[in-house]
Amino acid sequence: MVGKRSHRYAPPEDAPTPRRRTHPGKSHRDGGSRRPLRMKPEADPRLKPVFSRIGKPAAAAFRPDPFQLEALDAIRQDDCLVMAPTGSGKTWIAEEAIRSVFAKGGRCWYASPLKALTNSKWVEFSRRFGPVNVGIVTGDTKENTDAPIIVGTTEILRNQLYDAMHTGENLNCDLVILDEAHFLGDRDRGVVWEEIMIYLPVRIGLLLLSATIGNGEEIAAWLASVRGKTCRVIREEKRSVPLYPLFLHPSGRLMPLVEENRLFGKIGDFIGRRFHGRPERGGPPFGEMMNVLEQFQLLPAIFFLKSRAECDAALATCSPRGDESADAIFLEELEECLDRFPYLRNHRQLHDLQTARVAAHHGGQLPAWKFLVETMMKQGHLRAIFATSTVAAGVNFPARTIVLMNSDLFNGHEFSPLSGTEFHQMTGRAGRRGQDRVGFMLTVPGRFMDLIHIRKLLLKKPEAITSRIRSDFSMILNLLLSQTPDDIRDIFAKSLASYQRSHSEAPKRGQGERVDLWTDFQRHLRLLKEEGFVDADDRLTDNGIWASKLRLDQPLLIAECLRRDIFPHGDEKLLAAVIAPFVYDGDQDLAVIRKELPRRLTRAYDRMIAALTDLAERLKAGGFPVAPLFLWPAVVIYEWAAGGDWNRIIRKTGIADGDMAMLIMRTADNLRQITSLRETHPETSALAAKARDTILREPVVFESYQ
Questions:
Q1: Which tens digits make up the pLDDT trace of 122-152?
Q2: Tally of domains in the chain
Q3: Is 128 exposed, middle or buried (0-12, 13-18, 19+ CB in 10 A)?
Q4: Running DSSP on this structure, what letter comes out for residue 551?
Q5: Spatial contact of 69 and 92, defined as CB atoms under 8 Å apart
Q6: pLDDT in tens, 635-670
Q7: Domain containing 185 — which CATH number?
Q8: For the whole model, what pTM was predicted?
Q9: 108: which strand partners?
Q10: Per-residue DSSP letters for 417-482?
């Protein structure tokens, strides 16, 4: 098998949670085995003034805030970084900037990190500017790509810049907007944001939008040094909807969390104490918490929980609403959604949504179900959702109250205390502009709730962003299409990493994770030469040129299969199957019984593994990570491509709906990359297109924007 299985298990952000250490030095003499009393909704008298403010603000004509006008003035002549709280009106700035460029006959590119957010902006902008004027480009969707306003994912924009540098043509655009610009500091994807900022022609204006950047002035100064033009920083500290922090006593009594920047009253007594609710229910009494919130008009709410399982289990504690659940408008709009996605009529959580007006939202669910939940929440039909932290970033998904059950977060590697950035992302969902005069954050005591840490986060700014740029084979191949190694060295010298090394007041900040970019480039280049993708003069060979189009996580392994003609011929199901192992990035090997599998599938898989063994060993010898290529993803995708039943596959494998959908979507994206090789590999390219069409069907894909 290619690669060596890692011994580190890194579950997805919302997977069932590993054990955590309790907060050091905290007491657990809380009597966790005792049976708490049923919650009785009460509120400390000190909350009366703030609760009196609850309600919808009076309707008023829209008047832009000073920071919004200042940002529009800035982007007319300079680059601009806007840092303002969630819900404060950054999208209005983007729309008005687009309107200004569009009115002059110009073209705009709006890039976001999430496909769901990209699709949402496509709908919004189509309403604002007319469908004929707005196109979308993601790995899944490609519509109206000649439109003057393009909405797409950041990776697509980066790839278009690669193509423009290769052909020598300018990107046909006058303004680029990078939404959620704090992704520049993302461990895995930040490199894409940094590449865009380096490669983007100076003539194209750049507007960055974010709620959580701690070192905006440094980022702006770096951009100015790279692009040779001013980048103005527009900062707005004030939330459009004020945030009020609350504490929920186990008895059901609400009280302020802080008073004069200290924990209120005897709240300190709950530091480190467990609060699990009644033992027979197996967890916190979410239904009773919601009753307390409802009593004081604090719904709708978003409960941030640690795992998918906890989100799903929370639904069982919520009671039906009785006659109120038969609201005609709600039922009508729900029925419209179900008519569009009829396979959701049998969803196991539909009953909870219909009767209790609650839903779970996490990465283990079908995209269509998450869309339905988001739609119902946005339209005001749900009392609460139970979500993992993913809902905090990007998607416009506000509520009156957000509920924190834990003060730490699993970051993909370990549990760590909530950072200022993560905390601001979560609390940014509290309070709906135009619908609330005040938003609330409710803390619930428990074993993994450090109230002192939460108090400190209320005053803590988002963390500073550090460069995440790094080399990989796809980047190097694409840069060598148009650049010499000396040119690439100059590009690395323009990186945020280089700037922070030479300008940072804390020179060692973040450098422990960085490898010298030039040294790492040379390491990649040597192997590319050894494998015949680059010649002795540092130019791409014919193989290197077509391999550069494989903008994938493992381009060399897939290129090796293409060079050696290893991939199946004439069977799109088999091609989809053997691509699937390349896209699974976990280390969990599900058991399969080989003798029960189709012989043609195991032959195709074994042939591929045998062909890649030598290259995998050379990659490992060169110090490059090689992910294992497990058989089970190929089995799953083969059965799905052959027309297998979704629910049957889910039951057999035990994987979650959302994980299955992600496996299919990532396989489809890899197949899409192979379809780009029409000139050099016409037969495989055509088969890849057929394979992609075969696996992209309901319930993986759905038409949500009609």
A1: 989 999 999 999 999 998 788 999 999 999 9
A2: 2
A3: middle
A4: -
A5: no
A6: 999 999 999 999 999 999 999 999 999 999 999 999
A7: 3.40.50.300
A8: 0.89
A9: 149, 175
A10: EPPHHHHHHHHTTBS-TTT-S-EEEEE---TT--HHHHHHHTTPPPPPP-------HHHHHHHHTT
